[in-house]
Amino acid sequence: MSKKLWGGRFEKSTDETINEFQASIQFDQRLYREDIRGSIAHANMLAAQKIISEEDRQKIVEGLNEILEEIEAGKFDFSIDLEDIHMNIESRLTEKIGDSGRRLHSARSRNDQVALDMHLYMRRISVEVLNLLIDLQRALVETAEKNRDVIMPGYTHLQRAQPILFSHHLLAYFSMLKRDFDRMLGVFDRSDIMPLGAGALAGTTLPIDRKKVADELKFSEIYSNSLDAVSDRDYLLEFLSAASITMIHLSRLSEEIILWCSREFSFIELDDAHCTGSSMMPQKKNPDVPELVRGKSGRVIGHLMALLTTVKSLPLAYNKDLQEDKEGLFDAIDTLKFSLAVYEQIIRGMKIRKDNMRRAVDEDFSNATDLADYLVKKGIPFRDAHEISGKLVHECISRGIYLKDLSLEDFKKFSAAIDQDIFEAIDPVTCVESRNSLGGTSSIQVQIQIDNAKKIIESEKDSIAQKNF
Known about the structure:
Radius of gyration: 30 Å
CATH topology of the largest domain: Fumarase C, Chain A, domain 2
Helix content: 55-70%
Number of domains: 3
Low-confidence stretches: none
CATH architecture of the largest domain: Up-down Bundle
CATH superfamily of the largest domain: Fumarase/aspartase (Central domain)
Strand content: under 5%
Strand order of the largest sheet: 1-2
Largest sheet: 2 strands, antiparallel
Distance between the termini: 39 Å
Number of helices: 20
Structural class: mainly alpha
Number of strands: 6
CATH class of the largest domain: Mainly Alpha
């Protein structure tokens, strides 16, 4: 067993079982870029403050850059005995450059070092997620624009309610993703705070310059309280919360995609490249990817619950429990990024069965509200108009026909106010175009939404570009 870098106070080596239990290198090795970048900034500051020599600084920086190359070339041997990414890198650095490597940890604890790594990592990850959100938003907008005039049933309680534009439906998910974008932007901001210099919990007696490190690493803020710096996991909770909400949005979209591509609906057909078949039933074309996304939403929500439970009773400052912040987080990150990426492909690849959507509108009573509104415009109180419309629907159901199949004489039996213009009023196109209130489903309002969505995407891209990291 290798000697622990913290082992001076101990007479016994760590038990092998305990060693494996407490090691985090199996999962925190993905932080190697951030760990090396943070260590280089720390070394530069130590030399500037005369805590280490310029010669030591040069050796440290050169050694760390060589280690970075080794890791990225797959030539670095990660050791469980060395517990985590920090000690794996420091041990290799000392092996390469001798005592100069031992001086790197001056004025630093693993507590503030891992906090720094995670802040650097989450800044990078949040931007990756932000870009994936934009890609999916763009796919929704472009698909909506291509199918701007397609009419479909709008649903409440999963029952056909009123005719809407398919593009209007897609743009509702754009709006959800816009809120997701704003939340993830907040994750970046809460990650953009520099914890290094807090030491184990109380700062350091050495004359460090935290602002120099923050400037080199392009942090906008520095933690003002050292206890908070090493124990804060709010930004990770925010990410998991934002990720959970995004996954819920994707899960809702998945449910609709799954319904729409079923034989019962046949509103869309997914691309063959995005589906799988059955090992027994040769006719099957299964929407496995939407189903997986729907299922994985629970996984991400579970990681949020796990971290909330981990931190809910922790006294200040650092506790080993906080090592549990990573595995679930990393899995949530991978799951979210995968889900966003595949959904862009699904949206772009699906075929829209507009004739089937229109048939579903025509062969139903989703224009009954428009009949009631027609009567209101004729001066009939809405409650009376509602009752008349309901009776007309019942009449149609009893005869096995739809409102459009009634004659003018049939209509007049229920209200003398109804005239020939009723047939235009209850036509699905009229029903859609009449809903021209702000945010409504008319083609004018949908075009406004599309134009605004394009502007929002450009604004979002600008927001990302302004993040200096």
